[in-house]
Amino acid sequence: MDPKTPSTDMMNSANEMLRGALIGCGFFAKNHLHAWSDVAGVGIVAICDSDSERLKATANEFGIDRTYTDAAEMIDSERLDFVDIATTVRSHRPLVELAAHAGIAVICQKPFASTLQDAKAMVHACDKADVPLMVHENFRWQPAIQAVGRALASHAIGTPYWGRVSFRSAFDVFSGQPYLAEGARFIIEDLGIHILDIARFLFGNVDQITASTTRVNPSIKGEDVATMLLRHESGMTSIVDCSYATHLPQELFPQTLLEVDGTAGSLRLLSDYRLQIHTRDGTSVETVSMPALSWTSRPWQAIQSSVYAIQAHWIDCLRTGQKPATSGHDNLQTLALVEAAYDSAQTRRAVEIASLLKAKQI
Ligand code: NAD
Ligand code: 89V
């Protein structure tokens, strides 16, 4: 069972401002806070970070005067409709469980968990408490990816039978997020998770995956190149490939490129968000536009736009009782692909997703 609905209070008081609190004031949290100030009908009334310097700097920058270094204290002291967790993965389970036990709806950044066991426990805690849970899996909310989703849903190229979702870059992610260089796992867990989620969003759930990984950059611990072959439940085949070791004439970070072949044509998401659709009637190319948000900056605009879109979606969900597109239950399927990809890369075998989920009792 998935559907968790917000309290009747939230649904009945459509005009009342929803009260949120942010936990984690690090590198990415600024995007959450900027987006919250643009989403209608919501206010961030308190923030929390265990690092008091970061907390103070964020409070000053965003003019938020209710600050806490302890999330439990904040949840006890504030009247909240939801918490937005923008900490790194290690703290996700205790914080999600804390919110669930307090009966508060919760958003949690990706990667939701480092193990399927932790993810299952968080989903269970929110189900048991009857609180909505959304994983902040934002890449599928990028305007260009949504435009591709609409084109495929309208059968613009007939029935898709083959696809490629590709992210290749040499952008230095480690300067903003130094912890990414430290983990035994890197690109699939941090970035591939988004790209696998896009493959699921566009082509449906997956029943088998094969993966191969390598590390090119000698100064990091984890893999920085991964190539994955997916068989979808629909019968479609897709390739999901990602690399942070790819030097191109034009650095494309953070663009995801797409190729989709269908029974009536082909679709390509080319560099600079150009969407090309070719059928026997001809070829069209449009540049997908981004919303005008005052706080976005190159090269992050597509990601920043997706943060705004997913957070606006969350508020819609709280108001209407709709289940978030990237609910905890939904994200278990994406996390299973991450787990299965590492397993496949290590064992050099294809991994059946149904068997993995069964083994983990999901
Ligand atoms: P960060 O380390 O810069 O910031 C995390 C902050 O959380 C730190 O300030 C830390 O002090 C605080 N924190 C940790 N545990 C806490 C706790 N228990 N209570 C209160 N505060 C706590 O990390 P980041 O780069 O901002 O990444 C945060 C999350 O966002 C990660 O999971 C990362 O994968 C994700 N992220 C997502 C995107 C995206 O596009 N979706 C982009 C970047 C990062
Ligand atoms: O989206 C993310 O999680 C980021 C980045 C795009 C830089 O990989 O870590």
Automatic annotation (TrEMBL):
Q: Which InterPro entries match?
A: Gfo/Idh/MocA-like_OxRdtase_N, Gfo/Idh/MocA_oxidoreduct, GFO_IDH_MocA-like_dom, NAD(P)-bd_dom_sf
Q: Which GO terms describe its molecular function?
A: nucleotide binding
Question: Which regions form coiled coils?
Answer: none
Q: Which residues form the Gfo/Idh/MocA-like oxidoreductase N-terminal domain?
A: 19-135
A Pfam family of the record is GFO_IDH_MocA
Gene3D superfamilies, sorted? Dihydrodipicolinate Reductase, domain 2, NAD(P)-binding Rossmann-like Domain
Q: Where is the GFO/IDH/MocA-like oxidoreductase domain?
A: 146-268
Give the range the annotation lists for the signal sequence: none
What protein name does the entry list?
A: Gfo/Idh/MocA family oxidoreductase
Instruction: Give the originating organism.
Output: Caballeronia novacaledonica
Upper taxonomic lineage: Bacteria, Pseudomonadati, Pseudomonadota, Betaproteobacteria, Burkholderiales
